[in-house]
Amino acid sequence: MKGVFDLRTETIEIIKSTVPVLEQHGENITTRFYEMMFEDHPELLNIFNHANQKQGRQQKALAGSIYAAAQHIDQLEKILPVVKQIAHKHRSLGVKAEHYPIVGKYLLLAIKDVLGDAATEEILNAWAEAYQEIAQVFIQVEQEMYAEAEQSPGGWKEFRRFIVDRIVQESAVISSYYLVPEDKKELASFQPGQYVTVKFPIPGESHTHLRQYSLSDSPSKPYYRISVKKETSNNETPQGIVSNAIHAYLQEGDLIELTAPAGDFVLNLQSEKPIVFVAGGVGLTPLVSMLNTVVEAQPTRQVTFIQAAQNSELHAMKEQVKQLSNQHGQLRTYTIYDQPTLADQEQQNYDAAGLIDAAWLRKVIDDTDAEFYFCGPVPFMRHIYAILKQWEIPASQIHYEFFGPAAAIEG
């Protein structure tokens, strides 16, 4: 991030003076930014997730990123982990250098539109200068990621066509799709926990829809596997356009296009500490990839795998995880159902009912000096994170990923 240190002292001071304003008006600015940009550049709707736009998650995430940049404008190295995380998503979606001037233009227009006369020429010029520096860092990092994805053994540029070799229904709402390259050439490896971007044409839709799905098996397999939940609408989220289309239309033998694996939520195989996976619903997908890998690569490392689901009908991969537990003495598994069915209650096929709480979690974890990985709905993740912070688990041993735009883990 050498370039960011080229910012003038007066620019840094002006940017820092806007922090309180961004805290108050950040989401209004980013909402207006997307409105104006998409109105003038509808082609960019082929890249952005429409559902995240409708829910306001993208606007909130961008506002958070801008706020963090303003806070740390004099120490931008502090946001480097976030830069890399976003860059992984950008590379996976096909964001290019030529998109950054467009974003910069409409970001400044949105600041002026929302703040009015308070957005002085001095403030706008300072943000223009800062944006140029930060954009160059993103462009450089992403160019390196593009080169690595293309030049790695089995790697490729942009999209590659895969054949749906097999489809397995994992639960009432989740199905796994086993994908092999159409060209029958080498398959690029990946780090457990990473994802791919899927481009899937949807009948009647005018724009391309891209979605990122975690790879749900280990890198040692001769295929990629994605496990897709059919997202239905509720009070918080709209119906999943892509997930529903995949469930409705994708058949064995069909072709689907993917970008190369990306993502920084990955398993640390350098550590020998006990490992605890806590999955909420479909959040198990990256964690199952990690689980399959750790029992292969570290057969003596102690592993605890906890799966939270509504009930057995919505509990995906239960038999797969159980089989792993039977085969590997290092692995202990636990199931907690929020709403067990009558059949579940009769069969007692779960370890606890209700929501995970600190007392129950502490009972099933022998050693809290462990590496914790968790993934699931945002409220679930905030709950697990709060428990771990209460236990004073070091930040370096807490690992998590949000599906979609990042959110505040403390909320």
TrEMBL record:
GO terms for molecular function: nitric oxide dioxygenase NAD(P)H activity. Its cofactor is heme b; FAD. NADP(+) binds at residues 281-286. Residues 6-143 form the Globin domain. It holds the Pfam family FAD_binding_6. It is an enzyme of class 1 (oxidoreductase). The record marks 89, 401 as: Influences the redox potential of the prosthetic heme and FAD groups. Its EC number is 1.14.12.17. InterPro entries: Cbr1-like_FAD-bd_dom, FAD-bd_FR_type, FNR_nucleotide-bd, Globin, Globin-like_sf, Globin/Proto, Hmp, OxRdtase_FAD/NAD-bd. It comes from the Bacteria. Keywords: Detoxification, FAD, Flavoprotein, Heme, Iron, Metal-binding, NAD, NADP, Oxidoreductase, Oxygen transport, Transport. The active site is at 100 (charge relay system), 142 (charge relay system). Is involved in NO detoxification in an aerobic process, termed nitric oxide dioxygenase (NOD) reaction that utilizes O(2) and NAD(P)H to convert NO to nitrate, which protects the bacterium from various noxious nitrogen compounds. Therefore, plays a central role in the inducible response to nitrosative stress. Consists of two distinct domains; an N-terminal heme-containing oxygen-binding domain and a C-terminal reductase domain with binding sites for FAD and NAD(P)H. Belongs to the globin family. Two-domain flavohemoproteins subfamily. This is Flavohemoprotein. It comes from Marinicrinis sediminis.
